[in-house]
């Protein structure tokens, strides 16, 4: 477990032995295994312990007013789950957390996390970096949601996931991408075909290649 945690953002810069020395002497932690499809935590429940994924992948889901489940985030080991909601006056989970496959979760009691940050400035610095990075990600998502048309959302997604030096976005199952945009497969396919006709992108079975970043940028104006 401790070798795995050396790759966790919270313990970045620490060795496995150092992490073991922090965690093992205390009883303020648990490791729980979940099967695929298990509900790990429910929305609005008190978040009294920091959850770290040791193995597997989880999805954060939110149910809208029409009863549809929306995918908010997907996290893989060894990421932290909702660290920004561990402290503060409203420390409740904003989403449901569901196991995508067999998952092992390490939970560190909130008070113990606070003690670690007091005793080890590196952990404190790492935690601040994690919160700041998450805030940046969510600000981009809010900006993303400000666009109403699917074409604009696709253009922004492609610009965010490519660069001048790397213009290729690997394509998983088209259904997964459609769910990310909360769109049907047919509507997403129509948008990509339109972007291809305008020579802004090139699509094949495995990749989307951006041909004109400037052209995609014009769609956002």
Largest sheet properties: 4 strands, antiparallel
Using the alpha-carbon principal axes, give the shape: elongated
Structural class per helix/strand content? alpha+beta
CATH architecture of the largest domain: Sandwich
> Helical element count?
8
The parts where pLDDT drops under 50 for at least 5 residues are none
Looking at the structure, the CATH topology of the largest domain is Jelly Rolls
Task: Report the CATH superfamily of the largest domain.
Answer: Jelly Rolls
Top-tier CATH class of the largest domain: Mainly Beta
Strand content: 15-25%
Order of helices and strands: HHEEEEEEEEHHHEHHEEH
Order of strands in the sheet with most strands: 1-8-3-6
User: Nearest-angstrom radius of gyration?
Assistant: 20 Å
| Termini gap | 48 Å
- Domain tally: 2
How confident is the prediction overall: mean pLDDT?
A: 87
Report on this structure.
- With 221 residues, this protein is α+β, with helices and mostly antiparallel strands.
- The protein folds into two domains: 2-145, Jelly Rolls (Sandwich), CATH 2.60.120; 150-219, Arc Repressor Mutant, subunit A, CATH 1.10.10.
- It is built from eight helices and eleven strands.
- Strand 10 and strand 11 (207-210) form a beta hairpin.
- Helix 5 (150-160) packs antiparallel against helix 8 and helix 6 packs across helix 7.
């Amino acid at each position: 477990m401790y070798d795995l945690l050396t790759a966790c953002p919270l313990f970045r810069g620490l060795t496995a032995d150092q992490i073991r020395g922090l965690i093992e002497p205390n009883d303020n932690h648990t490791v729980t295994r979940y099967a695929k499809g298990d509900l790990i935590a429910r929305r609005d429940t008190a978040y009294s312990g920091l959850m770290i994924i040791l193995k597997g992948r989880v999805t954060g889901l939110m149910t809208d007013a029409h009863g549809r489940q929306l995918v908010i985030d997907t996290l893989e080991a060894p990421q932290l789950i909702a660290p920004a909601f561990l402290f503060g006056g409203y420390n409740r989970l904003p989403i449901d957390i569901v196991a995508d496959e067999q998952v092992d979760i390490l939970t560190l009691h909130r008070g113990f996390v606070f003690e670690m940050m007091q005793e080890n400035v590196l952990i404190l610095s790492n935690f601040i970096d994690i919160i700041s990075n998450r805030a940046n990600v969510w600000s981009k998502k809010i900006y993303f949601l400000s666009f109403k048309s699917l074409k604009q959302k696709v253009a922004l997604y492609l610009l965010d996931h490519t660069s001048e030096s790397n213009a290729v976005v690997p394509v998983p199952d088209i259904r997964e991408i459609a769910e990310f945009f909360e769109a049907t497969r047919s509507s997403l396919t129509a948008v990509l075909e339109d972007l291809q006709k305008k020579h802004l992108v090139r699509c094949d079975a495995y990749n989307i290649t951006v041909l004109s970043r400037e052209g995609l940028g014009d769609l956002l104006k």
